[in-house]
Every structure is written in C-alpha cells, then in structure tokens.
C-alpha cells in the first residue's frame, strides 16, 4: 500500500496530454487554451459613443452648439459623417463617432432651445463618454495565455475580437462501467437488497462540468464473463475508463483480474487513505484506467483527488493538484495514525467545518459540502484553528 503523496507522484509522472485541435468557441467551455491568443483587431474597432446623446468637438470655454437636425447616428451606421465647427450631432450608444468629434454629452445633460444645444461645461472633459478605438486591446496584443481556463468570460472576450474557433487539447472520450448486481436506476422503485446508483450520476456530472461530452456508461453485473466483455469493449474505444465498485477483495470483485486480462499495466493498487483505500490505477498505451472503490464517498473522493487531476491535465490544466488554500478548523479533530483522511467539509466565513456523516456509505454531507479537506496520515490530533489543505469540491 502506498501513501497519498506517492500515488499522486506516480500519476504526475505518467500524465497524458490530449492532442491539439481547433474547437468552436462555445463548445470549448470548461477546457483550457492550448496556445496563446493574439487579437487580430483593435477593439473597439472604431471610436464610438458610450451614451445616447450628442457628439461635439470639445472647447474649454464654449458650452453651446448648433444641432444638425437632419442627422442621427445609430449603432451599426456605416457611412462616414463629418462634424462641422460648433456643431452637435445626435448619436446613440455604440454608434461610430463622426469625424471631428471627440466628446459625447449624454442627452439628460443638455438643454435644447430651437436648434441650440447647451450643457454644463464643468461636468465634462475632452473625451467624456467616448470609447476610443483600441481601448480594450490593440491588434496583435496577447489577450489570453496558453493554459487559461475557458470560462464564459473568456468566451466573451474571444468572441469580441472575432475568434470563432480556438485551440484546445482534445478532451478524452470516457467510458464508465458501474459494477454491482444491487444497482437500481433512479426512477425505478427500490426493492429489498438493492441500492440506487449514485456513482453514475456523480461521475457523469463531474465530466460534464469539465467540458467532457463524449461519455458512455454501462452497467455490469458481478459476473466475470459479462464484466470482461464490457471492459474489453470499453477499453477498445475510450481514452479513459472509469469503473466503480468490484475492486475490493470480495468473492465477486472481478475488476482487477478483468483489467489485467485486458492488458492494463498497474501503476498502483491501494492507497493509505480513507475513504477509498482499494483504489486501482493503471495505463494501457495512451489510456488511463481508474477502478474506484464502490462506496459512494470512496468513488467521489477518488475521483476528486486522482481522476479529476489527470483529466484536467489531459485537457491542459498546469497545476491540477493545487489546493484551494489552507483553512483553519472550527474545532479540534482526532483520528488514528496511518491513513490520510479526506473529509467532506464546508468553508464558511474563512473557517473550515468538517461535516458529520463521513462513513463511506453515507452521502448526507454531499448535499452541503463545498470542499474536501485533507488530514495527513501521520496526524492524530489537530487543535481548533489549525490550518489544513482544502481542495475544490
Ligand atoms: N474484507 C474486506 N472487505 C472490504 C475491504 C477490505 O479491505 N477487506 N475494503 C472495504 C472498503 S474500504 C471499500 S471502499 C469497499 C470497496 O469495495 P468495492 O470497490 O469492491 O465495491 P463494491 O463491493 O462493489 O461496493 C461497495 C459498496 O458500495 C455500494 N455501491 C457500489 N456501487 C454503487 C453505486 N454505483 N452507487 C451507490 N452505491 C454503490 C455497494 O452497494 C456496496 O455497499 O470494500 C470494503 N470491503
Ligand atoms: O476505502 Mo473504504 O472507502 O474506507 O470504505
């Protein structure tokens, strides 16, 4: 049995990166940029108005202009318009500023008498309410760095400069096999001896969250021949195989031998941790194979601590092990030495609460946790206020 650190080091030295491909902007949500991005354009692309109002040429002493009644410049206007001396032209937000204008006076700040427009000169300066060409960025500027997360905000920035396809690391296709005769699908009545499948939905929703859409799910009963068929089929078509359950030492735990028969090379089996001790990780050419212990807290913790970092690194995240931070315990904590504990916890007002219900069958804390806290294998006692590492949920 190896320590948590040894397990993570082994994974890190075997990381697999996806190939670079171009992907439509919105479909890349959750992935990471595979290359630096330079803007092809100045943005704004042209000087434009930030307000509905009047375009003028600034003069430090002169607050009166003659309004050109016949002209109104709307957003989308493509004709070049010239402002004459001492003139004001009606303009709307986003519309191109006429040549010769340098300041916009919002409509609520002007007084109109006949064709004469006046305003309070103290309230403005030259350039007020005018968005200059290139104020966001110049053509050629580096606007997003390789490795940056593709968030809704990043997608907005790239769309604003006209980039429709972006380089990403091709996300893996993932096969999930849920083992156990006892599993029942949510939606069906639960019979004596059965348990609702919680691990399938946990794993699927984690993958959706990371922008991994190519996911296939199968259930396998505890029969070695049927399980082998499913393993062989899935391992031949997916980059990553995640199996839940059947990896412990029971008479019906056929996963490990099935993976060996499928040519999987073991990286490690069993980690000094709670929950999730009988975790198996292996590789086969450029594929990851994770067999997660079936208890829901074990599946979730092992996914969170081991599968997720490997997946995130595959799609381009540089430091996938990085904790959220170190947070102080709200009360003391005791455990026996020997195993690292991963605990469902909640950060509130900067303080860490370890939630009740940590047994590996118990999901009650899943509904209120917002992080996973780590207590090192050597630790027996932590006093209130001790800062410990905390990982995103
Ligand atoms: N004699 C020993 N028994 C066990 C050991 C051990 O060291 N010696 N380890 C225990 C630990 S720790 C864990 S964790 C589990 C892991 O067992 P498996 O990976 O073989 O998982 P299963 O036996 O298939 O299931 C365990 C448990 O989880 C429930 N389960 C399974 N899949 C799901 C699912 N998709 N959704 C919800 N619940 C699920 C299943 O019904 C079992 O109750 O082994 C211990 N035993
Ligand atoms: O590793 Mo198991 O998760 O303690 O029940």
UniProtKB/TrEMBL annotation:
Which Pfam families would you find in this protein's record? MoCF_biosynth, MoeA_C, MoeA_N
Q: Which UniProt keywords apply?
A: Magnesium, Metal-binding, Molybdenum, Molybdenum cofactor biosynthesis, Transferase
* Keyword Cell cycle appears in the UniProt entry: no
Its top-level enzyme class, in one word, is: transferase
CDD domains linked: MoeA
EC identifiers of the protein:
2.10.1.1
Q: Which cofactor does it need?
A: Mg(2+)
Reactions the enzyme catalyzes: adenylyl-molybdopterin + molybdate = Mo-molybdopterin + AMP + H(+)
- Show where the MoaB/Mog domain sits: 175-313
Q: Sorted alphabetically, which NCBIfam families does this protein's record hold? A: molyb_syn
Role:
Catalyzes the insertion of molybdate into adenylated molybdopterin with the concomitant release of AMP.
Q: Which family does it belong to?
A: Belongs to the MoeA family.
* Name of the protein in its database record: Molybdopterin molybdenumtransferase
Give the species: Shivajiella indica
What taxonomic classification does the UniProt entry list for its organism? Answer: Bacteria, Pseudomonadati, Bacteroidota, Cytophagia, Cytophagales
């Amino acid at each position: 049995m190896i320590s948590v650190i040894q397990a993570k080091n082994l994974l890190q030295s075997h990381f697999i990166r996806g190939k670079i491909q171009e992907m439509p902007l919105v479909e890349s949500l959750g992935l990471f940029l595979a290359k630096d991005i330079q803007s092809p354009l100045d943005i704004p692309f042209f000087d434009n108005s930030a307000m509905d109002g009047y375009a003028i040429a600034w003069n430090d002493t002169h607050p009166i202009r003659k309004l050109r009644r016949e002209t109104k410049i709307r957003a989308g206007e493509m004709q070049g318009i010239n402002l004459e001396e001492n003139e004001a032209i009606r303009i709307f937000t986003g519309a191109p500023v006429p040549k010769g204008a340098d300041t916009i006076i919002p409509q609520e700040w002007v007084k109109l008498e006949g064709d004469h427009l006046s305003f309070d000169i103290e309230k403005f300066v030259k350039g007020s309410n005018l968005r200059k060409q290139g104020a966001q960025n110049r053509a050629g500027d580096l606007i997003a760095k390789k490795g940056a997360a593709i968030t809704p905000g990043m997608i907005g920035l790239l769309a604003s400069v006209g980039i429709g396809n972006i380089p990403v690391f091709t996300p893996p296709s993932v096969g999930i096999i849920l083992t156990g005769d006892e599993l029942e699908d949510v939606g069906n009545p639960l019979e004596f001896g059965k348990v609702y499948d919680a691990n399938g939905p946990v794993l699927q929703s984690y993958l959706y969250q990371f922008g991994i859409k190519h996911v296939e799910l199968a259930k396998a009963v505890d029969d070695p021949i049927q399980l082998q068929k499913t393993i062989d089929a899935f391992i031949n078509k997916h980059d990553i195989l995640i199996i839940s359950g059947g990896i412990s030492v029971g008479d019906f735990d056929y996963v490990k031998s099935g993976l060996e028969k499928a040519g999987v090379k073991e990286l490690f089996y069993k980690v000094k941790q709670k929950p999730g001790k009988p975790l198996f990780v292996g590789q086969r050419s450029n594929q990851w194979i994770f067999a997660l212990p079936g208890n829901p807290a074990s599946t979730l913790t092992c996914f969170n601590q081991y599968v997720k970092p490997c997946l995130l690194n595959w799609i381009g995240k540089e430091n996938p092990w990085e904790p959220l931070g170190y947070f102080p315990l709200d009360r003391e904590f005791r455990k026996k030495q020997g195993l690292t504990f991963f605990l469902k916890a909640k950060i509130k007002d900067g303080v860490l609460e370890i939630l009740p219900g940590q047994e590996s069958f118990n999901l009650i804390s899943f509904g209120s946790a917002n992080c996973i806290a780590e207590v090192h294998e050597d630790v027996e006692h932590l006093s209130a206020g001790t800062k410990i590492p905390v990982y995103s949920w």
